[in-house]
Amino acid sequence: MRPTASRTRKMSNNYNDIPIGIRLLQSFSRHCPRFHARKELCYKMSIFLLTFLAYTCYHMSRKPISVVKSVLHGNCSNAQLQDEGNCGYAPFDGPDSKALFGMLDSAFLFSYAIAMFASGFIAERVSLRYFLSMGMIMTGVFTYLFGLARTSNIHSLSYFIIVQIFAGIFQTTGWPGVVTLVGRWFGKKKRGLIFGIWNSHTSIGNILGTLIAAHYVEKDWALSFVVPGIIIGAVGFLLFLFLVDQPEIVGCQPQPDTQERRISNESDADNDDDEEQARRSEAFYAQSGYADPQSDQISYRSAPTERTPILPRSQASREHAATGRPIGLIDALYIPGVIEFSLCLFFTKLVSYTFMYWLPLYIQSSNSFGPTLSAYLSTLFDVGGVVGAIAAGYVSDLTGMSATVCTVMLFFASPVLLMYEKYGVLSLTISVSLLIIVGIFVNGPYALITTSVSAELGQHSSLEGNSNALATVTAIIDGTGSIGAAVGPLLAGLISSHSWEKVFYMLIVSDIIAMVLLMRLVIKECNTLRRSATRIRIE
């Protein structure tokens, strides 16, 4: 007898206890009927706020390096600065500073990308409360250690690279953990809008990290890292006290679309009926020995549908779906859409992270602004990112066509990038306006893929009710995207030494490739829409 999904989950997570903070709140609210009447809503709000706060801190802690670059390598053309010894901080005060900055970015981002695949595998099998708390506290430690270099007068490049590597590894605990938690607690209704609003934590974290770093960058750049490090460590302890890992722990029911053998993709319902009818027909002709009148030979496979993956499903993946056990990395690739969206995110995240790590330095070099003002202006890109994420999620909910929404936004991103490169230096007003627009179209697809799309694929109907694939699918998609995020800043560091214009050409080409990679899914979504319209007219 095979164990059910719920039984397997209970066995694999029997160490998930009620957090200490929640126990105290339960004891205080024991005689409060209003709390018990709205218990599930209260827990959902706590999950939304805690995961939002957690990933805000993750991004806040990785942002200061982009601001501090401008003082690690100062403007040594000024004779007064040379006399005062303010040309930068060794070993970044030489002519090879951009290459060294590229090495730092790559150390963080490549370790992040590689560790992400393992992190998703682990997240499916452990308590997410412990997983996230430990990850945030250790991220805070290594963020603090980067700033400690100035306090302790450390100038070794190896030290900075090692700190960045371990910071990247522990940062991977964030995304699979928070997306899985939101996927467990919230259903599919208005998922795109919910995730769009929730995903603004990325941009808000970037803004807060930039503002904190900019406040200290010209006074004591060590505090640009120390303060975010302390904050993320404190929030990690807060999650340990109050984060509820699963609805069942506190007596709440999981969402209908996460229960065993529930078909979660409503757009595939008609296709499911057709497949079921085809299977019954095939079974009848196979058992009776008669030939199927619809084909020249007996067929044991149904016709491809919107649920058909690029790769044929393995026996192992079918067994995992049947038992509800967490699936492996290879099995997750059989889920329809995972490969296309993973490759698309490679290029979209490449563009987004190139802006994240190099935008303040580009603004300073192209407009001759100071480090502080350049950092403040770079936050406008993230302001546009908040608008883009919410808009992409809302339109995706209305249409049910995530791939098409991403493709349309990528189509407009390319000319907007070109306009910013050509005209952003003309005036401050034009630069501000274009930066916000660039943020909308660059971060919109990136936000939609990493949140709503990842959650949708992690609970896809082809998994036959197995909801234990969320963290693994999220890790595959975001891990592949993180490789692009590592490649982008590295290339930008090398290319910018010759021309910033070529950097923008690289970003435009990346957006075009990302758009092309989604064309198969766009065609499928358009075909589904056309069939639905035809069926409505017939009825």
Architecture in CATH? Up-down Bundle
- Secondary structure class reads mainly alpha
Q: Give the biggest beta sheet.
A: none
Low-confidence stretches: 1-15, 77-85, 257-277, 283-324
Strand content: under 5%
Q: Tell me how many strands there are.
A: 0
Please state the overall shape, judged from the principal axes of the Cα atoms.
globular
Mean pLDDT: 77
Helix and strand layout, with pairings?
Layout: H1 5-12, H2 20-28, H3 33-37, H4 39-62, H5 64-72, H6 79-84, H7 97-123, H8 128-151, H9 157-171, H10 174-185, H11 191-198, H12 200-216, H13 223-242, H14 269-288, H15 315-323, H16 329-332, H17 338-367, H18 371-399, H19 402-423, H20 428-458, H21 470-495, H22 500-517, H23 519-538
How would you summarize this macromolecular structure in one to three sentences?
The chain has 539 residues and is an all-alpha fold. It has 23 helices and no strands. The chain has a single domain (39-72, 90-249, 325-538), classed as MFS general substrate transporter like domains (Growth Hormone, Chain: A).
Task: Give your account of this protein's structure.
This protein is 73% helix and 0% strand. It has a single domain, classed as MFS general substrate transporter like domains (Growth Hormone, Chain: A), CATH 1.20.1250.20. The radius of gyration is 25 Å and the shape is globular. The longest helix is centred in the C-terminal third of the chain and has 31 residues. The two termini are 45 Å apart. α4 runs antiparallel to α10, α17 runs antiparallel to α18 and α20 runs antiparallel to α21. The N terminus is likely disordered. The chain is mainly alpha-helical and 539 residues long.
